[in-house]
Amino acid sequence: MVFSILALLAVCISICIKERKKSLYVQSLNCFFEAIYDFLISAFTGAILSIINLIRTFIFINKNKFSKSAYLIILFIFEGIIIINCYFSWTGWISLLPTIGSMIRSYCLWQSNMKLVRISGITTGILYGSYYIYYHGWFMVLGDFILLLTGIYTLYKNDIRKSNDEVIRN
């Protein structure tokens, strides 16, 4: 339970941060805490994905150290690893939920646009929340629901309302 609360706090804070690099550092804490929690509840597809996501996040933090083509290859490598993990840790159709969620999240974190990071918070909340309902991980379900609400709120506050305000001013 402690790890699910820590994961929740980290992911909600990460999508509220406006600077990409700081957001990714906090996101890496979420991946770490979620991996521990997933192993404890025997949700192995999610646990392995959390470890993969932790490594991915650290690489994405250092985006500027890679050429554009190398950075694109890194994205494809992580997307491929996520698919391979789904195959090897397959426990039924339920395994697709965290897989699809991680693929969307990887793409959004790979980009520099924080709006996409906030959108991925919404998709993660829906897909992982559904996954944890299946495993009766109620604290993570609550956490993903809060992530969903936080994602919607920060998307509205930072992107939709801001865009509407700019249209009104012009």
Record keyword descriptors for this entry:
7 helices; 170 residues; mainly alpha
What's the quick description here?
With 170 residues, the protein is mainly α. Helices cover 84% and strands 0% of the residues.
Give your account of this protein's structure:
- With 170 residues, the protein is mostly helical.
- The chain has one domain.
- The chain is built from 7 helices and no strands.
- The radius of gyration is 16 Å and the shape is globular.
What is the element layout, followed by pairings?
Elements lengths: L1 H15 L3 H21 L3 H18 L6 H21 L7 H15 L3 H21 L3 H32 L1
Element pattern in H and E: HHHHHHH
Ranges where pLDDT stays below 50 over 5 or more residues in a row are none
Computed Rg:
16 Å
Question: Could you report the average pLDDT, rounded to the nearest whole number?
Answer: 89
Largest sheet: none
Any idea how many domains?
1
Helical coverage, percent range: over 70%
Number of strands: 0
Assign an overall shape. globular
Proportion in β-strands: under 5%
Which class do the helix and strand fractions yield? mainly alpha
Provide a count of the helices.
7
What is the rounded distance between the termini? 49 Å
